[in-house]
Amino acid sequence: xxxxxLPLLTREGVLIKVSVRFWRGCKKLKAEDIGLKSSxxxxxxxxxxxxxxxxxxxxxxxxxxxxxxxxxxxxxxxPFLNGLAHFLPNARLQEVTQRLNExxxxxxxxxxxxxxxxxxxxxxxxxxxxxxxxxxVSDPDRLLATIEASFPLPQQMNRFYxxxxxxxxxxxxxxxxxxxxxxxxxxxxxxxxxxxxxxxxAKIRQDVxxxxxxxxxxxREQTAVLCGEMLTSIQTSETGVHQKTLNRLIRFIDQFKQxxxxxxxxxxxxxxxxxKELLSKTAEEYRDSAIARTRLTAGLQQxxxxxxxxxxxxxxxxxxxxxxxxxxxxxxxx
Length: 334
Fold this sequence. Notes:
Layout: H1 5-12, E1 13-21, E2 26-28, E3 50-52, H2 60-76, E4 78-80, E5 85-89, H3 90-136, H4 140-150, E6 162-168, H5 183-236, H6 243-259, H7 265-278, H8 283-287, H9 290-312, H10 316-333
Antiparallel strand pairs: 1-5, 1-6, 2-3, 4-5
């Protein structure tokens, strides 16, 4: 394993973690809430589940913004160390963080709007629950009391909300500190913690190597998937070749270059070839020429096949070149 791989990775991008929290307006019911005894309900067979205190549309805007934030991260990063965080290449850093800032502003505006309507939403939902409880349970008053008690007071709502963005980098631990304890115990703890640091460092280096290889395979597979979707669109669309379909590939090629921190020269070369040979024509030109359409579909099929083949290949050599690049960069910087 190249020792420069992890430091190079920290130079090529950052780790990002985004957490969005808001009050979901749900309550997990207990057996007693619906007039049953806990002993009469088998967890193996019955799940009372969560019930909505408010209609779904009440928090729909907040949920939409949460989904957009997570989709932004998923579409511009690579999961790092089993999803501990996401690796964001430097080339995508400014655009992604700017969009996150915009989403955060929209999130707090949606939160303020929800709280402004909270009292009226609660009153309306209580009326609906009164009608519904009569049909659901034999003791509706008990259920209604539980529902009412589940609504937080307006002044308590702020603690349920958060839009947090964290940027950080991973490093290999060199040592772990020890507390002031007896001399004999201290030597034992020092030895154990030094071993733990060595083990952690080795595991991180190994995981980073696998991570870089997975990123390469992921971008290659995304290329194949996009080609398949474009071919389906061309075959099923009434207009045949649509400009939006071609624009998807143009945007993908641009984004691929920004996400290609591991310097996958072969896949980038294939994409640039396709840009030159297939994307120089407009959708209208393709619709007017059967020969051109045939070349387009054949080119997309070829690119998809090449991308899938590359995705299945061992990326060890590419990862090694990535590490060699890191060593040269550090030697030049020294």
